[in-house]
Structure formats: C-alpha cells, structure tokens
User: What shape does this take?
Amino acid sequence: MTKSYMFPDNFKWGAAASATQTEGAANSGGKAKNIWDYWYEIEPERFHKGVGPQDTSTFYQHYKADIKRMKDVHFNSFRPSISWSRLIPDGVHVNQEAVDFYNDMFDELQKNDIESIVNLYHFDMPLNMQNKGGWENLEVVEAFKYYAETAFKLFGHKIKKWTTFNEPIVPVEMGYLNHFHYPCVVDMKRAVVVAYNSMLASAKTIQAYHELNQGGEIGIILNLTPSYPRSESEGDLKASQIADLLFNRSFLDPSVHGIYPEELIELLRDYELLPQTDKKDIELIRNNTVDFLGVNYYQPRRVKERESEYTSDKVLPEMFFVPYIWPERRMNPYRGWEIYEKGLYDIAMNIKDNYGNIPWYVAENGMGVENEERFLDETGMIQDDYRIEFYKEHLKWLYKGISEGSNCFGYHVWTFMDNWSWLNAYKNRYGLYRVDLETQERSLKKSGQWFSNVAKENGF
Ligand code: BGP
Assistant: This one.
C-alpha cells in the first residue's frame, strides 16, 4: 500500500525520557538527593496520591529488557537524561556505579542500533547545588559545566548527540514564578536570574563540548509554545508578543542566534528586572550557539490583553497578558492542555523562516490520559485510539512543514513507557507501553503497535 506521509531518509523515530521520571533507584546506586527527592520528603502531600520519585518506572533495574522493547517497536533513537546527582553525588567526585550504569545503558542502546541523544539537565537540580542557591548562584553554573565536561569525557566517544537542557523555561516558570516546582519562589526578578544563568550554563557547556572536539553535535531542547493572540487588536497582539518573548524567545534567540531580543531587554529594563551581566558572558553566549534544536510541543498558548486592573504588587507575567479561552478549542481534559496540531507546523515554519532553518527535531509530543485501565481489552491491551489520532494529526502537520522545507530530522514521543510525572506522579499515562505499577510489568498498547509500524515504514 502506498503511504501518504513518507518522512525523509534516516528520520529519527523514538522517545524521550528523563532520569528522575524513569530510573527509580533514587536512593541507591550511590545517587545523592535532587530537589525532587527532597521536596517529596518534606511535602509528600504535594504529589498525586502521595507517590514520590523513589522508584518511578524501575528503568535502573530493567533497562536491558526495556531497550529490547524499544527495539521491538523499531526505535532508531532514544533520548535519556543523565542524572547529575547520580553521576557526581557530592558535586566533585564521580560515582563509579553511575558510570557503569550509563556506560552499559548506552552500549545496550548501541547494540540495538538505537542512537542515544543524551540530555544533561531535566529539571533535576542536585539538592547540594540547590542549597547553594541553584541557578541563582554562578558557582552552580560552573559546577554544571564541570559535570557536563565530565560526562563528555566519560561517554563522548560513544555519544554523538548531546543536549544541554530540557525545557529550561519550565523550572523558571514553575519554580520561580509559581509554586509547582521546588523551591516554589514567586519572584520575577529572581526568575530572570535563573533563566539567564541557565542560558549561561548552556552556552558554557556548548563551548566546553566544542573545545573537546569529539566529532559530535550539541543542542538544546525547548518547549516552544506558540503564542496566539485573541484578535488582531493592538492590545492582543502586544500581549501575545510579550508572551512569546518571555516564554519562547528568552531561550530560543540566545540559543540559536546568540543574542537576546532587544524588545525583551527593553521590557525587563522598564520593570527593573534586568539581571547583572558581564560583557564576557554576553560574548560567550554570542559565540556558543547550538548545532541543532529539540522542540517539545504539547499545546499552544492563547492570550489576550489584560482587561481588568492588575492588583498584585508584584511584577509577574500575568501583568502583561492573560489566558484566552478560544471557543473552538479541543482539550485533553486530563492534563488540561489544548490539543492544536497545527501548532507544530507553525513551529516548523518559524524555525525555517526566522531561525536560519537550523536542523531540529520534535523531542517530545504526547498525550497524557488518566485511568487508562478502562481501555484494556480482553487480551490485556490498552486500546488507546485517541493517542494514535493525536500522533497522526501532529505528524500530518509536521509532514507539511517538512514538505515546505523545514529542516526537521526526527520525531520523538513522550514517552516510551508510562512514567512518573513531577507533581502528577502516575495520574496521566503517556507510554507506548503500559506499566503495571504493582508488578512493574510492561505491555504494549495499541498506540505502541501503531508507532512501531510507522517507525518501521518511515511513514504512514
Ligand atoms: C514535558 C517534560 C516531561 C514530561 C511532559 C509531560 O514538559 O519535559 O518531563 O513530564 O512534559 O508533562 P506532565 O508530565 O506534566 O504531564
């Protein structure tokens, strides 16, 4: 049968994961605590059904069988992250057990012809670093660079694609503008410092990687959430422009172009939010841009101008724009996110037209659904047709973007198997494989079967 949507040769098919969400073994193998382990200790009630990060999906024990399962569904690539607090628990000395684990995991992937795209930071600040002030402290930026360099030296001969951060805006938004990630600070001035220092850490890491000349590439993964204004009115357009500056371009522009948008600098200056910067660091950011981009896409951001008076005495993003509920929107009710497939095409075109058509890939796209057990059929397979539909429609728009010249080299879903998710724990399931939490057994879902075919055929 001829396929309607054939993807370019060597297109990468696979999934992303993160150490905290899949490895488990949070308190063993020599790993030190990260902010999630600690936060769970002091406030377990913040986590869905009180489930914390200790065991997550036991990948630490079962990675060999799990990688075999990846192979079974025709993955040719996979994005794990390294846990900083596992690799360098005290911030100085390398943990040999972690080295053995990651070495073996990467070898196992290689043996199965699955290319690793290895991410260095996925929301998982080591507790000892957070105690020093986390990203607010430049010492931690240096410690991150040391960790990254250590990882390059240990694994760089076998890993040829690295990423510095996954969604660096998220710890800023959730941990310094809202209280959804530890340390639950609500302070835009501090949030700006965290964002700027994360960007600095990314640029320093890119510099370190290129200096080592290991013959690979390094990028960053950003959750680009396109901003759509309610209307073409001046107020709505401005609201959406500011949302875009704060939440997309704050990392996208310096990562790809090496410079911050002038409008962002002006806005921060007007509200006395500009961080202290050093000329050398600005130069460093300018000279150390990414080789490629990973883009996580889940939902659009629809905004309108603020119509009611802003009463808070704090400067916060909601001062400049407020959410707009589009009457035609379709929701994923479990996650509370709008499903808007065309957003992926808009991203593809934005990268093509405004970011030098840099090579990029979809680094996460997926649909979290609650209580999936109700879709189990008599054979024990979850009939998740909604997820197939979700992937299909996004892939169609991605295909259109590629056909129009956008330089996209892959599509990774979130995620391979059901995993632990930050505050939501195991509430919403995302996997191509179901994980039975009692037995840790994995079983393929219908969407896994579908994805397997698409990856095998390079299209559908
Ligand atoms: C992304 C993160 C992932 C993952 C995913 C799904 O932002 O990179 O770590 O969690 O979102 O979101 P959630 O788990 O909150 O439903």
The chain has 15 helices and 17 strands.
